[in-house]
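Entry type: protein chain
Record version: 2
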Amino acid sequence: MLPLALCGGVANAATPKTVWLTVDQNTYNVLQQVDPAARSLESRYVANGTTNKGLVNVDRIHIVPVDESVLGGLSVQVHRQLHHCAGYITYDSLDAARAALQPRQPLAGLTRPDYTITQQALVKPWIAQQTAANITDTIQSLADFNNRYYNGSTGAQASGWLKDKWQSMATGRSDISVKQVFRGNDRQASVVLTITGTQKPDQIVVLGAHLDTVNWNDAGGQSHEASRAPGADDDASGVAGLTETLRVLLANGYKPARTIQLMAYAGEEFGLYGSNYIASDYANRNIDVVGMLQLDMTNYKGSAGDIYLEDDYTDAQQNQFVESLANTYLPQLSVMHDKCGYGCSDHASWHNQGYATSMPFESR
């Protein structure tokens, strides 16, 4: 509901490939269990956000070279032990990993929007139009794929299915385009739908979720292609939320002032591959993303609260706006705050590039 308010080669190839991970101390400890030979090349203290008193919180982030085959086992253990996705960001070069640990600066020329809530007349009826059945149908369709592993055949098929679905939904709208974005030789592409803004087309609002899955019982890269990993909550639920939001916007003929992009990212479970690729490209081209919201696991009530806003690696001012949106349009739901950890989902890719991000989560 919140988005309405905001409006290759297979993994078991024989040739070893070194990648460079940036990890916090918790994930580094898990990595050394998975790969005892893994060693930190260097580390740096990185700001992860500010407290309500304006104090800066920091994490110690390590750069660790590993063989790419380690990532599957690491992702499984991060889920099991730390209870969140990813927990690390994967880079193809040491230079790229080092650049990611430089002090974060907002991109020059970014627009900071006015966070005044003024669209009640539009949004309240739209929220009432959303149906649980449609969300469930999309979740089921994605879960029907054996898995959505980013470098596997059914992961690629899931990307194609979503592209076709979004494209079909937008039939007749010349201001809407849908494309797949491939990172190198990865078999699964990220899917990006763009609704071009009518007044400020160069200012972009990004609403994201991740498309891929990982089997929590999978020991490593050899079996990812065959493993059953439906990912109904992680993260078909987020993609389904975006899809139902799109349906309601289209049903009401909505044409936004700013450009809106829906993004379903590939490869989140293996170090934010898809979102890091896109966010880095946007930053390099100085694209004006005025805000980014990530939906990762939204359909299971695992704690007392209804919505948990992650305070780390997000933007405090935008988080306050998202909380105000929830209080305005969904007053029956409670909003609480938590911390997700380093690189826990795709919002971290955008945060690291200097963009304002938020991530509402389903539980503590």
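Comment: The domain at 119-361 is CATH 3.40.630.10 (Aminopeptidase).
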